[in-house]
Amino acid sequence: MSAAAPQHAGSNVPPRRASVSPDQPPSSPPPPREMIPPQPHDDRAESAGNKPAICPSDHASIVPLEKPSSPDTKKIPKQSWEYAVRSGVAGGIAACAAKTVVAPLDRVKILFQASNPRFQKYTGSWSGALKAISDIYRQDSVRGLFRGHSATLLRIFPYGGIKFLAYEQIRGAMIRGKEQETPVRRFMAGALSGCASVFATYPLEVIRVRLAWETKGTARITVRDICRTIYNEHPPAPQPPSAASLQSATHLPKPAAEAVAASSTAMNRVTLGTGLSNFFRGFTPTLWGMLPYAGMSFLTHDLAGDFMRQRRFASYTVLPMSERSQRQLAPNKPPPLRAWAELITGALAGFVSQTASYPLEVIRRRMQVGGVVGDGHRLTMVEVARNIMRESGYRGFFVGLGIGYVKVVPMAATSFYVYERMKVWFRI
Predict the structure, then answer these.
(1) Angle subtended at Cα 199 by Cα 198 and Cα 204, rounded to the nearest 5 degrees
(2) Whole-angstrom Cα distance, residue 46 to residue 53?
(3) pLDDT of residue 355
(4) Region (Disordered): which ranges (predicted)?
């Protein structure tokens, strides 16, 4: 027995199990703690105190654990309908906000440009504009300062929406890379977008100008009254030549002279019956004026924005953004500017564009109110320019330019500022 003990101690035979009584049921003890399979690690569970995570924590809701593909961060293609709707709505809101800011000055400027007899004495000085505003307020109260503003908003929302939408689309088609971002392409994109907006909204502009031109305080003039008046205005048509006069002047045979005279009479009747053409008075100078105005406006705004975003100024001019906000920016879109920097770029754009296009704007206003000034004869651009030159000289083409600056500069600043902020909000 003494020899068997050392042999058992040094052997590799496992120890014998303890005997189990037949009457005792077999037990299944729980596995040791170290044998329990490890559970997946969850940081959010630890941050919640090892409690089951019912909803993400505040930190997880602000900074996701991994980049989600949610609507908040998805990129909207510029050629999609969603982008078109968002940019159009943003442009319309920006235009309405800008026009509301300067509505009283806009009415005074129209009265000066259209040579309203009652307000001729106020033209030519800064104090005259203030006196004109005071006169309008004394006669018609605040409503007089905003006369025609309802038609303005009705026109300016689609006008601004189409203008900014067209600019985004035309610019994207003409400028596909950094090497194509030239001043000429930027100018052309702005000019074409302005022309597109004018084509769609010009009749509303004529109604707005006529509402603003009216100064009679005895009866309230509605949009319907103005539309009826414009439609029924007809210029004095020349008398068609008779068959006898044609035959003597051209030596035509009598049947041919009678046919020509009948055609002239029929054409004269058709012209007198087309009142819709009255809503497009001054359309040609409007297009000519829109080319430099919209082109220089967008070009100046883009160039001034590029200057503000230079590295040496970026820390002062660029709006700080979080990482998530930067992910929401459209591809290749420059970061937004601070409020003061964006307002300065918009104001500079308004100043340059107004100076470049103002003479054509004066001609356009004269043509738009042609039905209520003089005998209602429709004058061409050249005839209106000659009349202005004969009445006031070259200064007549810039009458009201001072108040034009006071109106256009804050209007352009507000328009570009609101549009850029709406683009960030709409993630376009």
Answers:
(1) 65
(2) 9
(3) 92
(4) 1-77
CB 292 within 8 A of CB 357: yes
In whole angstroms, what is the distance from residue 318 CA to residue 21 CA? 85
Residue 147 neighbours by CB under 8 Å, 6+ apart: 107, 140, 211, 212, 214
Q: Name every residue whose Cβ is closer than 8 Å to that of residue 62 and which is 6 or more positions away in sequence.
A: none
Q: Which of 90, 96, 82 has the alpha carbon at shortest distance from 425?
A: 90
Query: How many C-beta atoms lie closer than 10 Å to residue 82's C-beta?
Result: 11
Q: What whole-number distance in Å separates Cα of residue 50 and Cα of residue 316?
A: 45
DSSP classification of residue 335: P
Torsion of CA 341, 343, 344, 350, to 10 degrees: 150
Q: Which domain holds residue 122?
A: 81-230+283-426
The identity of residue 145, as a single letter, is L
Give the integer Cα–Cα distance in Å for 409 and 405: 6
Residue 416 contacts residue 346 (beta carbons within 8 Å): yes
Which residue's entry shows tokens 């820390």?
A: 315
In a domain, 92, yes or no: yes
Confidence of residue 232 (pLDDT cuts 50, 70, 90): confident
**Which two three-digit tokens encode residue 226?**
């103005």
- Does the residue 330 lie in any domain? yes
State the CATH number of the domain containing residue 145: 1.50.40.10
75 falls within a domain:
no
| Token couple for 316 | 């002062």
**Does 33 fall in a domain?**
no
- Which residue matches tokens 């006369």? 147
